[in-house]
Specification:
Helices cover 19% and strands 34% of the residues. The protein is an alpha+beta fold. Strands 7-6-5-2-9-10 form a six-stranded antiparallel β-sheet. Strands 11-12-1-13 form a four-stranded mixed β-sheet. A four-stranded antiparallel β-sheet has the order 20-19-18-28.
C-alpha cells in the first residue's frame, strides 16, 4: 500500500508539471524516434543491466523512483493514448505514467549506461509518446552519443580518417539544423533516411566514435547559422544545386565540379527494363497511360541531371520530374537523376550521314540517341558534351545533326545509363573518401562541397 501511494503521488506530480510534449529544450540532447510504432496493447520490452529508474526530462540528475527490477513491459493504457501502463517481468502491474515524452526510463546511474528496447541497446534514456497512430518509442540522449550511432550507418567505418571526420561534422550540423523536423509529432528526428540513419549502440564502431570525439562540437556555419549539410553517396562527377532538385536556392548548396567522385563506387551504373516492368511501375504509382511507347527527356540541368521527361503511352502521356521518375522506378534501381536513355532495338539506319561515337559504355548512333559525348582535347583533358544538336565539319561540308534524347521502347527494353547515387546535393561521401586519400583534411573536404561555409565550435 505504501509503494502504491508513493507511485500515485509521483504520477500526480508529473501530470501537474508536464502538460505538453517534452520536446528537448537542452540543445545538447536530442529526441529520436526509434523502431516501429507499437499498436494498442502491444508491449515494449525495456531493460537495463542495473536497477531501472524513472526520471523527469528536465531533471536527469535524480531519479523520481526506482522500478522493481531491470526489465519492464510498457503498453498504451486501454482506451487511452495519452498514458502508458508499466508491468514488471512477472507481468505484475506497476504503475501508469503519462505518454507525452516527459518521463524517462533509464539505468539508475544515468546516461553513461545503456538501455535495451526489445533487445536492441541504446545510450541515454527511453521515453514514450502515445497518439492515434500508436505508441512511439523515443531515445533521449546527448547529441554526441547520437552521432556515435549515425556516422557508421551513413559512411563505411573503415574509410579514411579525414573522411570520417567530415561525415561527423556534416551529420552534427545536419542534426542541429533539422531539430524541428518532427516537432509537431513530439520528437526531433527519426532513425531513417528521412532524417539520418541511426542504429543505436550496436551500430557503433571505434573508428567512427573517434571521428565524432575528435570533431566534438564542430559544425558548419553559413552567415552565422548552422548549415543544413545534406549529403549523398556519389555525385557521379558533378554535384547539383539545391534549386534544381528541391526548388529553393541555398547559397552553400550549389553545384561544384567533383572529379573525386569519378571511378568510385556507383560512379557508373546501367539498368535495363522491359516495357512490361516499366508499365507496372508507372501504374503502381498512379500513372495510367496504357502501354508505354516512348520516353523523351525534355530538360536537363547543366550538370546533366534530368529535370523533366515525357512518357508517351497508348492511351495518353505524362510529364514527370526526374526525381519523380526515379522514385517510381526505385531509388536503388535508378540511382540518380544523372542518367541517359537508350534501347536495345535495331536502329536499322544505313545512311551516310549517321555519326557513330563511343558514348559511355557502348557505341551508339548520335542521331536519335544522344547520350553523353566525351571529347578529348590536345592537352589530354576530357570534356563532356550533351546538347540538342551537334555540328560536324566533314568532307561534305558543315552538317548539323539533331540529337533529341528520345527512346522508343515499344519494340524492346529501355537501357538507362547513369552516374552517381543519390540526389547529388552537398557532400559526396565517396568523393570525400577519395579526397581524404589524396591528402585533404576534413575542413578542406567540407569547404569543397559546401560553398562559403566556416567550421566553428558550437
Amino acid at each position: 500500500m505504501k509503494r502504491t501511494t508513493i507511485v500515485f503521488a509521483v504520477l500526480i506530480m508529473i501530470l501537474i508539471q508536464t502538460i505538453s510534449y517534452g520536446i528537448v529544450e537542452d540543445m545538447d540532447y536530442i529526441d529520436v524516434k526509434i523502431g516501429k510504432t507499437y499498436e494498442a496493447l502491444e508491449r515494449v520490452r525495456v531493460s537495463t543491466d542495473s536497477i531501472m529508474a524513472i526520471y523527469q526530462k528536465n531533471d536527469k540528475e535524480d531519479p523520481l523512483m526506482e522500478l522493481p527490477g531491470d526489465t519492464m513491459y510498457i503498453s498504451m493504457s486501454l482506451g487511452r493514448s495519452d498514458e502508458i501502463d508499466v508491468y514488471d517481468d512477472s507481468n505484475t502491474y506497476v504503475t501508469t505514467l503519462p505518454a507525452n515524452g516527459t518521463v524517462l526510463f533509464g539505468a539508475e546511474y544515468g546516461q553513461d549506461n545503456f538501455i535495451g528496447v526489445d533487445g536492441k541497446e541504446y545510450r541515454g534514456y527511453i521515453t514514450f509518446i502515445g497518439n492515434r497512430n500508436g505508441l512511439y518509442v523515443i531515445n533521449h540522449l546527448g547529441i554526441e552519443s547520437y552521432l556515435y550511432g549515425v556516422v557508421p550507418k551513413e559512411i563505411p567505418s573503415l574509410s579514411s580518417e579525414e573522411a570520417l571526420k567530415a561525415q561527423a561534422v556534416a551529420a552534427r550540423s545536419y542534426a542541429y539544423s533539422t531539430m524541428n523536423k518532427h516537432i509537431n509529432e513530439g520528437f526531433n528526428v527519426c532513425d531513417t533516411t528521412h532524417c539520418q540513419v541511426y542504429g543505436g549502440y550496436e551500430a557503433e564502431q571505434p573508428t567512427t566514435n573517434r571521428a565524432v570525439d575528435e570533431t566534438r562540437g564542430l559544425v558548419a556555419e553559413y552567415d552565422g547559422l548552422i548549415a543544413s549539410t545534406v549529403f549523398h553517396s556519389s555525385s557521379g562527377g558533378h554535384t547539383e544545386s539545391s534549386e534544381n532538385v528541391w526548388g529553393g536556392r541555398v547559397p552553400y548548396l550549389v553545384a561544384v565540379d567533383d572529379p573525386y567522385s569519378l571511378n568510385t563506387t556507383n560512379s557508373n551504373w546501367e539498368v535495363s527494363m522491359d516495357s512490361d516492368s516499366l508499365n507496372q511501375k508507372l501504374l503502381s504509382g498512379g500513372i495510367d497511360i496504357g502501354e508505354v511507347i516512348s520516353i523523351d527527356i525534355k530538360e536537363k540541368t547543366e550538370s546533366g541531371r534530368v529535370v523533366e521527361l515525357l512518357i508517351n503511352g497508348s492511351s495518353g502521356s505524362a510529364e514527370l520530374s526526374g526525381e519523380k521518375f526515379r522514385s517510381l522506378i526505385g531509388t536503388t534501381t535508378i540511382k540518380s537523376t544523372l542518367f541517359s536513355l537508350g534501347d536495345n532495338s535495331d536502329t536499322g539506319n544505313g545512311g551516310n550521314n549517321v555519326i557513330y561515337a563511343a558514348s559511355e559504355r557502348r557505341i551508339q548512333i548520335l542521331e536519335g540517341d544522344r547520350g553523353q559525348i566525351s571529347i578529348i582535347s590536345d592537352d589530354g583533358r576530357v570534356r563532356s558534351y550533351s546538347d540538342e544538336s551537334i555540328t560536324v565539319v566533314g568532307d561534305r561540308g558543315v552538317s548539323t545533326y539533331e540529337t533529341p534524347e528520345t527512346v522508343d521502347i515499344s519494340r524492346g527494353n529501355v537501357v538507362i545509363s547513369g552516374r552517381g547515387f543519390g540526389h547529388g546535393i552537398g557532400m559526396s561521401q565517396y568523393g570525400a573518401i577519395e579526397m581524404a586519400k589524396q591528402g585533404f583534411d576534413f575542413e578542406e573536404i567540407l569547404e569543397h562541397y559546401y560553398t562559403g561555409i566556416e567550421i566553428t565550435k558550437y
